[in-house]
Amino acid sequence: MTSTSAYKATLSFSNDGSSIEFPVYEGTTGPDVIDIRTLYGSTGKFTFDPGFMSTAACESEITYIDGDKGELLYRGYPIEQIAVHCDYLDTCYLLLHGELPTSEEKADFDYRVTHHTMIHEQMNRFFAGFRRDAHPMAILVACVGAMSAFYHDSLDITNPEHRHISAIRLIAKMPTMVAMAYKYSVGQPSMYPKNSLSYSANLMHMMFGTPCEAYEPNDVLVRALDRILILHADHEQNASTSTVRLAGSSGANPFACIAAGIATLWGPAHGGANEACLLMLDQIQREGGIEKIGEFIAKVKDKNSGVKLMGFGHRVYKNYDPRAKLMQETCKEVLGELGLGDDPIFKLAMELERIALEDNYFVSRKLYPNVDFYSGVVQKAMGIPTSMFTCIFALARTVGWIAQWNEMIGETDQKIGRPRQLYTGATRRDIVRQPAAETKR
Ligand code: CMC
Among this protein's residues, is 232 annotated catalytic? Predict the structure, then answer.
């Protein structure tokens, strides 16, 4: 903990008139935090905050979100500038090391990542063990976890060099595994990585190339994919990142921790939202398209329907998610490049957004489009199947997870994460059993 206390907060209890003081820390930006770590020791009471509505679970220097302004910073740099001036591997370096790389550092980093992209040949057999119709996220969770069975030489988490090698391996091998999960699902042979290609071009080559003919990735699509990866690279203490930190706090190896993060990301309230959003748009389109938006919005507003406007709303953003704006821009570029400017799903998404942003239900709750609203439309246009969207998100977020895990392991006062609870179950009681002879057969 590097913060110092600037002022104090006093908590007083109405039942016995006692009070206790806590230090309050100021970050470089964002809300101050009250350090309540001594609360239980001094009062025998816990705080109660399911869903972490008011709890900062860690100190971090990596990513900052100002939800009211709609601002996202990676190591202080606005996402809008990173999206324009950096590629994904610059972004990875920045998140891992805190600074953008010099040209020598970048060349070295690119080389290291590029030369770790192959996976152990025996890992192929893992893929072959799955049903062909397995969800690619199920395959990814398993295969990333299985990496700990293959890379024993980098599992000493107390050794910074081991941690760095694991980071490089994860960043480098995720595209290979994501592409293999895809190829397996369509029954095509997996493609080996190609070192002459950039990170994102190589991903496209492994997903869309076949051994039968040369594949030339389209530059506009490569740039779009790279931007998708940049926009998803980190997002401070979201559910999957917090899971990675919690798993890592026990001393678990990085591959196991990232597998836990992938599992958490899969849910439709988190990374699964891009898949759910496109399925939602497809369904509205099938049921009548733009004409039916009114009916759909009415369902969303009916609390008994259980229907949500996927790709809208965010725990932190109470303004436009800056990633959604960039994604919308990319969406237009990709559709233009592919001659799909009249794509009905994109038009439907734009109209749905316009109507929702004028509707008091969404306005009063400050619900704006998030990154997932347009990412599915872009990915679909690029030929990426819906079931792969969350895998692409997981690939992109791997660097964020690893940077956050590394930051936590490097802390001097790092402790295992161990939340407490408000217990409302039965109090102590004794088991009373009927004697055997009296029980009915
Ligand atoms: N559609 C309809 N109503 C919504 C939506 C939505 N997408 N999002 C929130 N609300 C309502 C919610 O019902 C609640 O209403 P009320 O005050 O009447 O009870 C109010 O808005 C506040 O929402 P909340 O659920 O308490 O907010 P939260 O911070 O717990 O949830 C969220 C955030 C992202 C889980 C939620 O907005 C949601 O489920 N959105 C749709 C799924 C989605 O797009 N997720 C991607 C998030 S961004 C990518 C990522 O980080 O993974």
Answer: no
